[in-house]
Amino acid sequence: MARQLPSFQDFNPVARVRQFVWDLPPGEQPPAMRAAIYASRILWVILRDLTAGRSNQQAMSLVYTTLLAIVPVLAITFAILKAFGVQNNVADLMLEFLAPLGDQGVELTEQMLSFVEQVNISVLGSVGIAFFVYTLLSTMQKIEKAFNDIWHVRSGRSLARQVAEFVSVGLLGPLALFLALGIIATALSSQVVDDVSGVVPVRAVIDQIAVIMPYVVMIGMFTLLYKVVPNARVRFTAALLGGAVAGLIWVATGWAFANFVVTSARYAAIYSAFASLVFFMIWLYAAWLILLTGCSVAYYFQNVRHLSPQLGVARLTLRDTDRITLALLVVVHRAFRQGGRAWPMDALARRLNIPTGMLDDIIHPLQKAGFIAISEDGRHVLAARDAVASYVEEAIQTVRDDLQAGAIASMALRSESAVDELFERLDAARKDELSHTETIAALLDEADGEKKAAE
Predict the structure, then answer these.
(1) How far is 352 from 399, CA to CA, in rounded Å?
(2) Which of 120, 218, 225, 336 has the fewest CB atoms found within 10 Å of its own CB?
(3) How distant, in Å, are the alpha carbons of 33, 166, 176, 242, 321 from that of 172?
């Protein structure tokens, strides 16, 4: 009997790609293949996020926030940079940012800077200054919240830390950038460089540095944002990869958008005087989308071993959530017994082999219930209740209640008597089993006893 060949309808390219990306075990592959699989998985989940619309909504929200805050931010930044004599670099930076808009970008830069120069903070009064400060802090809060949502972090920074973050990232960052660019420009225009640049190979190297430097600075700015803004411990390699991807996408998108603006004279005719504003808002949306995409790359790269095609980062089952809850308390109390050492959250996440976002989902309810405490910097976990008074059943139920908040009450469900009796017996058996190890202290003694016996 002749073998039947598969028909064209049986060939599903999406299924084949999915099989390559998700079915092959990366740990068993050569390094190059492993890197290709991980890169494909990150690309898969980012495209899933974009098609789901979550990043798009965040980008549109940040566009609205930026339009409200751009003049106050530029006014205060301009005033501070003026004290250091580098205020003229603001125009250069804005021109670079709005370069894809062509002549309209130059027009918008001139208009915004004219607005900024007319702002006189001394005549605003207390109400006006309060509005400026509120706008700045609100902008930083929304940017931080967008980054924290990507990193699945529940808690944000305190007001004092937000102010420090704005000063470091929003003001000192551009100041350091402008000073660095000034030093580089001075060095490249020095007499020594002029003398050496007469040599053809040296001149070629200097020209290449001048071409590459703007991209290096751009990637560095993205990396700094991904490292500092999320209220989570972001590894430098993850932030750098996110910054590199965002920088490359920025260059490609800027080139494509510039061509779009050049060939869109009919849109300018339709929108007339509003054409510059419309193009500016579209480019602002693209810029925020690129920034959020780079942040997603950093998050998924840091948690690449936990990726899932359906969820982005895989979730814990209810049973595994119970296991990790008790394991977390045992690990934290063991550190307390050994001298009161606090666990860094990123180290604790690695110890339990779960993403930091999942760890936060467990830590948050335990902290509210008083089982554990978080350090002032928000990065360390330590015991807050004696292990003898930390009951296993209470800890498990505390985390379950938080995860199931808003669920339909069991009494409101219409079930069958036989089914209800079965679950009553299961619950009774579970409580009876847990009663043999009622507290974290007993569980910790048992775990340490087994460890000593094994040694």
Answers:
(1) 16
(2) 120
(3) 42, 9, 6, 22, 42
- Longest CA–CA span in the chain (Å) reads 94
242-147-309-26 Cα dihedral, nearest 10 degrees: 40
pLDDT in tens, 200-255: 565 666 666 666 776 777 888 888 888 888 887 888 899 999 999 998 888 888 88
Can you tell me the distance from the alpha carbon of 143 to that of 337, in angstroms, rounded to the nearest whole number?
40
Residue with more model confidence, 315 or 132: 315
Look up tokens 């330590």; give the residue: 382
Instruction: Identify the CA nearest to 97 among candidates 291, 250, 201.
Output: 250
Taking residue 431's Cβ as centre, other Cβ atoms within 10 Å add up to 10
How high is the pLDDT of residue 8? 46
Spell out the alpha helix ranges (H) of 310-344: 318-337
Residue ranges and CATH numbers for the domains of the chain are 8-50 (no CATH), 53-308 (no CATH), 315-454 (1.10.10.10)
The residues, any chain, with a CB within 8 Å of residue 382's CB and separated by 6 or more, are: 332, 335, 336, 340, 341, 342, 343, 372, 373, 375
- DSSP string across 131-188: HHHHHHHHHHHHHHHHHHHHTT------HHHHHHHIIIIIIIHHHHHHHHHHHHHHHH
pLDDT in tens, 311-370: 777 788 888 888 899 899 988 888 888 877 888 888 888 888 888 778 888 888 898 888
Contact (CB, 8 A) for 438 and 385: no
Q: State the number of CA atoms in the 13 A half-sphere of 213 facing the CB.
A: 14
- Distance between CA atoms of 116 and 114, rounded to whole angstroms? 5
pLDDT over 80 (residue 121): no
